[in-house]
Design brief:
This is Kinesin heavy chain e4. 77% of the residues lie in helices and 0% in strands. It is mainly alpha-helical and 77 residues long.
Length: 77
Amino acid sequence: AHQRKRIAELLANLLRDLAEIGAAVGGSELDFKLNVDTVGKLEEEFTVARLHISKIKSEVKNVVQRCSSLESANIDA
């Protein structure tokens, strides 16, 4: 029981960090709330985390492409 509670706390911290990263990349900060007492929802929370990681990954790729385009345009100018 203690180990599950600890895992839930770690997941909550991870989700909070992901929300901050997502906000920094350009999205709106998402409100992740994980009730440590309901560890039965961990699988659902991991699925949500994976979806947000995919979204953040896509946003980062777009930013890198934009930066490359701007650098090329700046060199040509």
